[in-house]
Design brief:
1 helix; six-stranded antiparallel beta sheet
Length: 280
Amino acid sequence: RSLVWVQGTDAAGSDGPPAAARVQVYAPAAVGTLGGVVRSVASGLPLAGARIDAGNWQASSAADGSYVRRLPAGNYDLSASAAGFEPLTVPALSVTGGGTLTRDLSLFALCRVLGTDAESSPAGWSAQAPWAISAGATTQTGSRAWLESPGNYANNANTSLVSPTIDLVGYSVPQLSFDSWCDTESGWDFGNVEYSLDGGSTWSTPAWRCNGDASLRHVVLDLPALAGIAQAKIRFRFTSDTSVVRDGWYVDNIALDAGGPTCRATQGAGNAVFASGFEP
C-alpha cells in the first residue's frame, strides 16, 4: 500500500495544488475478475447505470447492461441497485486469484402503488382548504400542480393535502417521489412531507421539508417504515409563522412505488438463486 502524490502543471508552467491518495498494489495472481450483465426481470432488457457493490469495491453497468470489476481474491456479498428497481443482494460469491466469475443479475422493477399528476382531481385525496389544483395550464412545476393557496399564502397556516389509505401489505422498499417548488420565507415557513402508519390517527415527524427554495426539484424519498403497512397515508403539510408571506409551495407528479413479493408476482420468476423442483 503506497501513498501517491499528484500535481498538475498548466500550459503556462504554473503548478496546481498537490493531491494525494492511497493506492493498494496487488500481485496479478492475487486478483480475479467479476462481471456479467444486469437486466430487467419484466422486460429482459439490459439496464444501464446500475450500481454494483462488492465489499468496498464498486462498478456501474454500461449501455448494454454489462459490468466488470477486478477484485482481490476473496468472498463477497454482491449487491446491485438501479433507479426504479428493487435492490438485489447475492451473498458469498467467491472470486479466485487469476480467475473470472460471471454473475448475471436480474432486477425487479418497482410497482406504482399510488400516483397523481394533478391534471384532474384524483380520487381519495383530501385537500384541506385552501389547498387546490392550480387553474392555469402552466405553473412552476411545468404543468397543473397542487398548491397550498391561490396567490400568496396566509400567516399562521397549517393545512394539508392527504393521500387515500394505501395498502402496502406484501410490499417492501417504498419510495415516494414528487416535484416541488417551494417559495417560502426561509427558516420560518415550511412544506413538510409526513406519513402515517395507522390510517391518519398519528403522523411522523417530517420525513422531508422545504423552505426558501424557489427552484424546481424532483424529490425521491425512501420510506422503509411503510413496508408491509395495511393503512398507510402520506400528507403534504404546509405551515407558516405570523409574518412575511410569499407565493408558496407547488407539488406535482406524486408517486409511491414499492417492490416486494406482491410486486414481483406481476413480473415473472426472474433468476432463481435456488429451486428444488422436488415432487411432494
